[in-house]
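Recap from last week: sequence in, structure out.
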Amino acid sequence: MLVDSHCHIDQVNEALNETAANLVAAAEAEAVSHFLCVCIDMPNYPVVLELARQFDNVSASVGVHPTTECLPEEEVSTAQLIEYAQDEKIVAIGETGLDYFHHKGDMTWQQDRFRAHIAAAKETGKPLIIHMRDAKEDTLAILAEEKADTVGGVMHCFVEDWETAEKAMELGFYISFSGIVTFKNAKVLQDVAKRMPLDRMLVETDAPYLAPAPHRGKTNQPAYVRHVAEFIADLREDSFEHIAQVTTDNFFRLFHHAQAAKLN
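Predicted structure tokens:
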């Protein structure tokens, strides 16, 4: 079985005008057994939490995406994140991190928000979901400064080189591959996928974004995570079943609160 370790089911619903139940069922038909529905801002939190409560095999996170702009008085605090993370269906803190592609200039506000998320993760013992775009040096530096290795997490939708992957893994982070790895021009990323130790690998869709081949350009959905796993299996001259099993085991090892909820 497979896990989609990062998706936005609510946004897929809107894009495809489809029900969450049908999306989950379509994914289950492709051997996808669990889903992490990731929060992007505070208004999104009750939406993803309700989805996680509706389906036993859906977990959720709490966090504010680094590109989300808000007034200083509306900025999320560590205390708020800790409070919202108390729900047993919340298994991670994020999506958080740094994005210097969409925003330029003084990035102190992003960095402060990032540090608040790391503090919440350390306090709750729930791992981090990291978004990193055009900001690898600062992202890795802040993770090290804030001792994020004590809680760990995942570098979601990883697109960097092997050196960056090694540095992230040294900090206790897993590397997650999205549909980008299937793109013909993603040679550097494919090299990372080939060299990755299997016990540090996850797969995801980031649906509704970044649909893998053969669906590139279409609205992504959790069922398509199978294509990511199949591509990586072929790349590594491994079996789909093996890649599916190890990435599933890795998911529940990292997001151990999801395992606890599953057992309950």
